[in-house]
Amino acid sequence: MSFPKPLMMAQQIVRGAVREGGVAVDATLGNGHDALFLAKLVGKEGKVYGFDVQEEAITASNLKVQEAGVECELSFHCRGHEHLAETVQEPVQAVMFNLGYLPRADKAVITTVETTLPALGQACDLLEKGGVISVMCYPGHEGGDVEAQDVLKWASSLPREGWRVIQYGFINAPNNPPFLVAIEKLSA
């Protein structure tokens, strides 16, 4: 047996929550990997919302889904994930966050506590019962350590009666390895 990497565990958890024809959100589009994953899950009758502050992420994500030939309704927005609730007006089954910076781009443009925590709160409000949020935290870059710790603190404070929260990651890996925080909504 081999333990899955945190990103693979995030996909496994999300896969269990998203139905064909459902609605999902990629809160940090990046290069479009999560958007494509979600598009495959929701299928032709489903919808994927996506957010990123960099136009190149919107372009890359659209291209990735189109090149894969996956059909679903896409609604990608060049704005921060803290505007999630202003854009998404329907219940969602999953919201995926990949914090940090866009690979192979300006590493000075990063997600921050000031935008991520409000976005997480909005994601919780949008989730339907049984829905999940996956948050990949990357404490190994400047600013990422503070954001990761604040995400953990925030997630730990969710009431146990309505939420299940796990942390998953390799604790014996070097250089502040990434880890997953996954949140499941237990009640409406």
UniProtKB/TrEMBL annotation:
Q: Which organism is it from?
A: Rubritalea halochordaticola
Instruction: Note the superkingdom of the native organism.
Output: Bacteria
An example of a Pfam family matching this protein is rRNA_methylase
Question: Which InterPro entries does the record associate with it?
Answer: MnmM_MeTrfase, SAM-dependent_MTases_sf
Q: What is this protein called?
A: Methyltransferase domain-containing protein
